[in-house]
Amino acid sequence: MEYVHAVLRKAFNDAVRVDQVLASNPAERAKRPRKPRPAPGTVWNDDQLRAFLRVARRHRLYAFFHLAAYTGAWRGELLNLRWADIDLDAGEVTFRGSTDVIDGERVEGTTKGGRERTVSIDAGTVRVLKEHRARQARERLSGLPEVLSVTRPG
Questions:
Q1: What is the mean pLDDT of each run of 10 residues along the chain (154 residues)?
Q2: In angstroms, rounded to a whole number, what is the distance separating the alpha carbons of residues 24 and 27?
Q3: CA of residue 130 relative to chain centroid, distance
Q4: CB of 151 closer than 8 Å to CB of 122
Q5: Comparing C-alpha atoms, which of 114, 115, 104, 99 is closest to residue 149?
Q6: What domains, with CATH codes, occur in the chain?
């Protein structure tokens, strides 16, 4: 509907300015149609999230999934995390920036709000991160590549 309005407005503008067959553009006085709001995405309920995390527990990215679920952080913020940003003793994670991959290149930037923010994490999340860090240390010793940027040393 918005496209139809734009086409009519352009055609009437041409009729006024170019062809001079109209004195004024009637589409200028018409209300622009509203864009329909997109349907909201579905959000998992508590049971669905628990089921996902139970299955994901065996996955190498489990710490990433868990941290995403329990902090509400954006994907780019999580990808930008370093161990230096995580204080396991205080139970805090500080999101200092954001990372994305554009045309195959890693691009680092600021957080969405442009400022760093610190989020408290619960004891279960601290435990997950400690387990992940220990697993990362074992993998480093065995020569396996690191998978999560959240697991890279600061």
A1: 81 86 85 79 92 95 96 92 96 94 87 86 97 91 62 47
A2: 9
A3: 24
A4: no
A5: 99
A6: 1-41 (no CATH), 46-151 (1.10.443.10)
